[in-house]
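Deviations from the work plan: none for this task. Representative record:
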Amino acid sequence: MIKVVLIGDGNVAYQLAIALQSANNVDLIQRYSRSESNNSLFDPSIDHTTDLKHLKHADIYILAVKDEAIAEVAALIPDLNGIVVHTSGAMGLEQLGRHQRIGVIYPVQSLSIQQKINLKKVPFAIEASSKEDLDVIRTLISHISEHVFDLDSAKREKLHITAVFANNFSNFMFSCAEDLCQQFDIPFDILRPLIVETGKKIQYLDPLEAQTGPAKRLDHEVIQKHKKELKGMQKEIYTLLTEAIIKTYQKNNHGKKL
Amino acid sequence: MIKVVLIGDGNVAYQLAIALQSANNVDLIQRYSRSESNNSLFDPSIDHTTDLKHLKHADIYILAVKDEAIAEVAALIPDLNGIVVHTSGAMGLEQLGRHQRIGVIYPVQSLSIQQKINLKKVPFAIEASSKEDLDVIRTLISHISEHVFDLDSAKREKLHITAVFANNFSNFMFSCAEDLCQQFDIPFDILRPLIVETGKKIQYLDPLEAQTGPAKRLDHEVIQKHKKELKGMQKEIYTLLTEAIIKTYQKNNHGKKL
């Protein structure tokens, strides 16, 4: 049994608690959170403390807290023999400060309390300060996910950049669409099936093949009509992304018939 | 029985053929395509012609051809008594030229031959030049989709703009992520579960609530680190979208605690 203490009560902590509790060979022995406000979200049978001095002895302490709180919380954790890991894509190992045995478990997924997700299908990028601890971390994460891979801090930061495009920026495109629906008096619900399918397509197509629309087919007439209806930030975004798509397909079709 | 002739053999024609064939009270009596090259994709029991002069008498002729071909193909269709409709979000009714009874059925979905899709869940925006023909079109489309709504050409063009953001631009974000994965030597497969979830979330959250990432949380340190790793077009996109997200959340959080 790998004994785990979970620190934090946000989106990542919530999903990890569920996965760790149902995993074989894993014992989630304790949760820590600064306040008791989110306690009702968690299984009350898990021992809970609001005092870092009362942390139990465990093999792994998982800091599932906000990026900017990692260094501060890590500094407050007493010296214990277990491995201290954080869950951030953007932060390096060094955030864990003076602790001797440190590591990272980064779930490449946008997790939220609103929706329970099957972590089995979520890839985890893992890292540790020693080969032995990396083995312990890999064993633990293998119990909750089928996709565990090693990635050092430098490369994890790069993966995080790709995730910003794949998730943050694509979601912001949905947000622009919603804002335009309000401007145009069109119910946003009409777009929801399109949005789901946009993501699903990438399970069996490369995004380059899945691309459609006026920019891809160099339809300058439609592009001009669209620009006339847009203003401000959304016009700037439309212009830049349209140019970028045109360039991308000119490059990729170099020598091929369009 | 509503008799339908389907003109075209691309993505939209393929999906419509399947839906029309399995619909109650609809008889897909003929298909037209310029060549026979895609014939193997279609049920061979549907009568097929490559000559527009041989079109059968039908209630509705559906032009499922590329935007830029609509006017040309419409002009070549002989004078028949049925309603001639196109399937484009970007094009007006006037593309159908001299025909007396005209309309539009625009599926708000990115359709492809690679993946059969359930059109029942796909919203269709419909339009016609007369109230009577709009009723016929509505009856037809109600047999293949649960979500049929009336939209005139001007508003359909606006809906198309929102779909460019919701689909074309979000897909291009996935494309940028894939390109970056190649640059950084990270397998793109790691991002596929994140991409699916990004779209699925919008079924139960508004994009404004679903937004996460360094721009949303004003994490300037991470933003600067990311910019250092990017160049060219991707750096421009990162910069513009990061600014836009920051502005959006400042606006929406005006007066609220961040």
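The two ends of chain B are 58 Å apart (CA to CA).
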